[in-house]
Specification:
- The protein has six helices and three strands; from the N terminus they run ααβααββαα.
- The longest helix has 22 residues.
- It is globular.
- The model has no long low-confidence stretch (mean pLDDT about 90).
């Protein structure tokens, strides 16, 4: 079965709302006063290194001005810290705080628990295939430089 790039684009475009809804259904942020964009920001910062505001804005595909509002809200909730570069005080880094890490850890547990329930009727072979498929998609798009 040969597929062309246009069909791949149509598939991604058509199913993006379902993928986004799946993620939103797996994490309960209803009781947490953050948006999905703010949660994505926490995920990016959870990769382990401090990012400049410009780097973080680029990773989130937004302007520095938009990002400032996102980080301000997260800083007010003590989930993100701003750190000045000791060599250049104008350079500001965003860093995940302990509270932000705790939130992500609890959401990770929640995702695992919900997946255990939702996928309980799947065989181990099906779960392995699903894992391999998601891993492959993520790997493919990690190697691309879009934007």
């Amino acid at each position: 079965m040969n597929r062309n790039i246009s069909e791949l684009g149509e598939l991604i475009f058509a199913h993006y709302p379902k993928i986004r809804k799946l993620y939103r259904d797996l994490v309960s942020i209803r009781d947490i006063p953050i948006s999905i964009t703010q949660l994505t920001c926490l995920h990016i910062l959870n990769q382990g290194k401090d990012l400049t505001m410009t780097q973080l804005a680029s990773d989130l595909c937004m302007s520095n001005q938009q990002l400032t509002k996102v980080v301000d809200a997260l800083a007010e909730l003590n989930m993100v810290e701003r750190v000045c570069d000791p060599n250049n005080r104008r350079k500001v880094y965003a860093r995940l705080s302990a509270k932000g890490r705790e939130l992500l850890a609890s959401l990770q547990t929640e995702v695992s628990d919900k997946l255990s329930f939702v996928l309980r009727k799947m065989s181990q072979e099906e779960i392995d295939k699903l894992y391999d498929s998601i891993f492959y998609v993520v790997h493919c798009f990690d190697t691309l430089h879009i934007g």
